[in-house]
Amino acid sequence: MFENHLPTAELQALDAAHHMHPFTDGDGLAKKGARIITKAKGVWVTDSEGAEILDGMAGLWCVNVGYGREELVEAAARQMRQLPFYNTFFQTSHIPAIQLAKRLAELAPGDLNHVFFNGSGSDSNDTNIRMVRRYWQALEKPEKNVIISRWNGYHGSTMGAASLGGMKGMHAQGGLPIPGVVHIDQPDWWSEGGDLTPEAFGLARARQLEEKILEIGAENVAAFIGEPVQGAGGVIVPPATYWPEIQRICRQYDILLIADEVITGFGRTGNWFGCQTFGITPDIMTVAKGLTSGYIPMGASIVSDRVAAVINGSDEFAHGYTYSGHPVAAAVALENLRLLDEDGIVARVAAETAPYLKAKWEGLAAHPLVGEAKIVGMMGSIALTPNKETRAKFASKSGTVGYICRERCFANNLVMRHVGDRMIISPPLVITPAEIDILIARALKSLDETLVRINAEGLN
Ligand code: PLP
């Protein structure tokens, strides 16, 4: 459809003149111009110059079934013809929302049997803030309203979700966090573990939750929220000791546990949900992204029997979005879940492609620039370092080396993102072993070129 588009330079000029991008330095955009993506298939995206780029990030961690699945296009078109929109407010419902809620209840672990639909991951987490506060209020414990989350976590961009997140740069720009949200440290052993073993460090970081609860008083704490694997924070895979201890503490002090599965849901960690990979059963799960493989926006809060009984059993929960349970999004989600299941996509990740990728990814640790190489399922990170033994950081400002590496990847037609001086991947779940070989070869070439730049510019 866009084959006869304007020349790239003209598109870039129009883009810089009129399009305000999320998380983008506008000045840099005006000087360099955006890379404009025109089409995609499988794990490959094509830019306006015709370059074929391996998308190691599945868009923004979301295109789980890969690009170009006609089944999803058909599902959307069918639903648009049948019923393009109806709301789910005021005791109305429709078939796609009913079917999707039932399917999610089947897939979700434990007694997570109830679904509140939202438009995105951010507004799902806003729903969660309101829901857990409403839960304790309905139980006549309105003072139990503080939510504990983690520094360097990411839960979205709305005022509520960005408050839950622990991105200090985001807090600084908007008078955040909102009252009643406090943070503890993240379980990043490579950067912050010091002399502790990863196992001991995982326990120590989980016990910060207990310390914080005791400091605030359990009678004042509503919930803890965390991503099973911190994604935007740099794919921080926690030590195995971490999550079971978090769950133990939440249960001991009667604190609701919210797992933000916006990235880790729908096969990303090798199971349907990250909480299954890490052996926990939350009270609420946030999902979005892979729910529709990004083909259309949708998010949801999947809620336990215990929480739903209180929310449904009290006065009306005064919350919701026009697009809660949007029928077209729900139809796409249902078809996407069918593909993930019946096409064996999730099963293949666990049995075949994730083990293959893990072996190759961990092999990157042999590169002189790479310290820790961590991966779980189809999300991985490498920490770039001038000294593997001491786990040192570069003397240059954090992110300088990561940015160079990301640019080298881009030049080599591989999308890898950088978070500070960590490089991260999260490819479509349909990536094949042959495509994994290409990803690794391009990553290695980019690392070599980064090393040359570091040495030339004396950046270590
Ligand atoms: N939660 C997590 C863990 C995320 O990674 C993201 C987005 O990256 C969000 C929430 C926010 O989702 P959205 O961008 O759909 O609002």
Automatic annotation (TrEMBL):
UniProt GO MF annotations: adenosylmethionine-8-amino-7-oxononanoate transaminase activity; pyridoxal phosphate binding
Presence of the UniProt keyword Transferase in the record: yes
PROSITE patterns associated with the record: AA_TRANSFER_CLASS_3
Cofactor(s) this protein requires: pyridoxal 5'-phosphate
A Pfam family recorded for this sequence: Aminotran_3
Any one GO BP annotation for this protein: biotin biosynthetic process
E.C. code: 2.6.1.-
SUPFAM superfamilies in alphabetical order: PLP-dependent transferases
The keyword Transferase is annotated on this UniProt entry: yes
Keywords: Aminotransferase, Pyridoxal phosphate, Transferase
Domain of life: Bacteria
Family: Belongs to the class-III pyridoxal-phosphate-dependent aminotransferase family.
Name used for this protein in its record: Aminotransferase, class III
Species of the source: Rhodobacter capsulatus (strain ATCC BAA-309 / NBRC 16581 / SB1003)
